[in-house]
Amino acid sequence: MITNKKILILGMARSGVSAAKLLANYPNEIVISDIKEQEASILTELEDLNIKVVITNNQEELIESSLDFVIKNPAIRKDNAAVVKAKSLGIPVINEMELAFHFLPKDVDIIGITGSNGKTTTTTITFELLKLARKDVFLGGNIGIPLSSVVSEMKEGSILVLEISDHQLCDMYDFKTNISALTNLSEVHLDFHGTYENYKAVKKKIFNHHTSQEIAILNRESKDVLELTKDISSKKIYFSTKEKADICLVDNKIFYFEEEVIHISDIKIKGNHNYENCMVAIAIAKHYGVKNEDIKTFLSTFNGVEHRIEYVRTLKGRKFYNDSKATNNESTIIALESFIEDTILLMGGLDRNIPFDSIVPHLKHVRRIVSFGETKNKISEFAKANGVESIIVDNLKEAVINAYQKSKEGDVILLSPACASWDQYKDFEVRGNEFKEIVNALE
Description:
The protein is of the alpha/beta class. The chain is about 30% helix and about 20% strand. It is built from 15 helices and 20 strands. α5 packs across α11. The chain is globular. The relative contact order is 0.09.
């Protein structure tokens, strides 16, 4: 618990505002800052809690030696001027999840799920399965629910299921899980971390402070995962859809330590990537005593998570899918491999200076690419270089309309941007919701 401290919060997204509200329950001096103007209702709510709000492009001027610590939004880079100044003055810089960890009741079981892809689906399935066996299960983290917003509802013995991003792991120090899962590793977010080695080192922090009493659930098929975790102290449990493992696929059935749990024909979401996500969730669920019949019941009806290869509608034989959460190449590859129909692909967003070359082998069903946003020209050049018809538009609405006009019956129209949304949107959820609104308005 943190009291009687002078605190600066950088960033007024959900996590920053939630952190401020949590700290305001105790005698702390709190300043929260952003470079963008905020909604009046948020400003009023914070000021009513005696939280000072500063909107400025010069946040480094708010850094002074009297601060006890700085809480930064995970998206703020470590070379940000305010962050650099704070560290030069010896002021601890943490994130909202690290902060909230110190307010958790005793004996809370923490399940942390990370990886380059599959985090949200795995976290969602895990949470829903545990709810079948326990009432005191809570969901939070990168899934859109700041931990600070749920700590007050928790009690001793609660279970906490967290999706944890690499950006959040950057500023973790005391935070510790009881169970950590690493779904996979690939070369993503290098614009933020600089190198793949840096990225992997950050991901490894999901196992911080583990002993042989804590559990690590690991992807046996990933050489990078195996190499990265070879020296961690956790009890290791491995999963695989292709190899013999503690949780594996044999004759189209998922086995958990040689116990048959479910046939994949009974799992509504399809594809090896989804079976891997289910395996991680099953391993955690079985640890807490969830029954196989309950696992089967849930997985036979689970449609997937919003914004992740989400079916929107069929219009005149064209099927529309929202994959706005695909903010990197690997996610878009997974989406493309989910379809055998002719596909019109909508790509674009923030330019992270990452080439799209890894997508090339997966373009076999893509007959047209519609590019929009900051990367539109770069994507168009990529498409033409690989023999795919392409067109450049300015925004998502134009992209949807063009794709529909140029489509034929039987086509899949897929929004899978392979780029972050921040050039034109607050986050990928806003982008995905706009896509659905546009699609549902088509006649």
